[in-house]
Design goal:
The chain has about 210 residues and is mostly helical. The protein contains twelve helices and no strands. The chain has helices at about 1-5, 10-20, 25-35, 40-50, 60-70, 75-90, 95-105, 110-115, 125-135, 140-165, 165-175, 180-210.
């Protein structure tokens, strides 16, 4: 377990000690902080809590995902407040902005859920910022974040139960060694999934047009 603690900075260890009496609610608070501002190794947090309380392994991923859904409102509302201005200053004209928004609207739920399910260092906050820019509705947005993070944390919890907390050390080491390949694989899966959804919707529209 001491190897897991090596993943934390000093301030994070202090925060963990402060939140430990809160039990699983402490995981929720950390989830809020991680999704809103400061990056925290949530996989390691989940691993430690699950290993100490394997009988309630599912509680920690769920509470962590709830915290993430709440915390992710911060980059979301930052994007909603000034994101369009940022894009305009970067040379995105109104026509291109409208096209980008139309593409996002067609796949908005997956465009948030899939990044939320990805492991770090995948830049989830950029997608949260984008969801705010394109004015995704709040409840579907929070639902997408919750589902994505819950899937990710549940996978972490199950791995810990079957292989022990040291599995997180092995995964972390492997990710550091093969990060370019991992990012390439994640990008390929994301693009493939979005292409599948787009192709399926286009096929459904064609079938509907044929029937009419």
């Amino acid at each position: 377990m001491h190897k897991l603690l090596s993943h934390f900075h000093h301030w994070e260890l202090v925060l963990l000690a402060f939140l430990k009496p809160l039990g699983f609610w402490g995981v929720g608070v950390l989830g809020v902080i991680d999704a809103s501002s400061l990056a925290i190794p949530m996989d390691v947090v989940i691993a430690g809590y699950v290993w100490g309380d394997r009988g309630h392994f599912w509680v920690y991923p769920v509470v962590g995902a709830i915290g993430a859904a709440i915390g992710a409102l911060v980059p979301f509302y930052i994007g909603r407040a000034g994101g369009e201005l940022v894009l305009t200053k970067r040379g995105v004209n109104p026509e291109k902005y409208a096209a980008m928004r139309a593409r996002f609207d067609r796949h908005h739920w997956l465009a948030v859920m899939v990044p939320a399910a990805m492991p770090p260092p995948f830049p989830f906050k950029l997608f949260a910022f984008g969801a705010g820019i394109f004015e995704m509705r709040v409840l579907p947005y929070m639902g997408a974040v919750f589902v994505g993070r819950a899937i990710h944390y549940l996978v972490t919890a199950i791995l810990v139960i079957y292989f022990g907390p040291t599995i997180m050390e092995l995964i972390s080491h492997g990710m550091k060694r093969h990060m370019p390949l991992i990012l390439l694989g994640v990008a390929a899966v994301t693009v493939g999934l979005l292409f599948y959804v787009f192709h399926r919707r286009r096929r459904n529209r064609r079938q509907a047009a044929t029937q009419n």
